[in-house]
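Hi team, as promised in this morning's meeting, here are the two structures we talked about. I've kept the exact order from the run log so nobody has to guess. The first one is mostly here for context; it's the second one we should focus on when we meet again. Sequence first, then the predicted structure tokens.
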Amino acid sequence: MDKHDRHYSTPNTALAAYLLTEGFTLLSITTSPNPKVIGGIEAVFTFQDDPHLLDCVRLWQTGQAEGNLIVFFGNYKRFLGEVKRATRRETA
């Protein structure tokens, strides 16, 4: 795989908001039906690979993440809204 084609994907909305807050490039948000998740729609957030991305993921997973909480919360609300709109489209 070409280095420029790599990416990191996560279904974790809060982690995705943190990564966006830290300046990583969001490539896409893909939604699909999944009866095992609340609302029946699963979102997967895909980011451009970066040498520091996995370090930030580890900080998040170990509760050591720091950053601008106002920007994080805005990104988190934006992502929740996008998932909610996708849920409405799927159930309409």
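And here is the second protein, the one for discussion:
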Amino acid sequence: MKPDLDAMEARGEAAHKLVCDLCRPRGAAGAREWMMSIPARPEYDPDLVIGAALSDIPALIAYVRKLEAVAEAARSAATQKLFDDAGHADDLAVIAAKCKLQDAIAALDAPDG
């Protein structure tokens, strides 16, 4: 299942802001103190805000690992296709397809950045 990346990003940003606010000197603009409410306030209580962001990590890691496996399978399939079509090297359509596959393989192997 694809994680809700927008919600995860929002929770991460909220947690980061909260940690920054908790570190501000008492009385400074934007300063917060560690507190817990009854009833709990998930969008305000530091333990719940930070906990929600941290609980996203396992799902995100699992999803990234799944994407990496799919990318590896695609790279492997593309490489196999190049070998399978090697006997048709004079066909212009096959040559064009090989170039596209090689570009796709390079994109899969390239670091982000």
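Starting points for discussion:
The longest helix spans residues 46-84.
The helical segments are 5-23, 46-84, 92-109.
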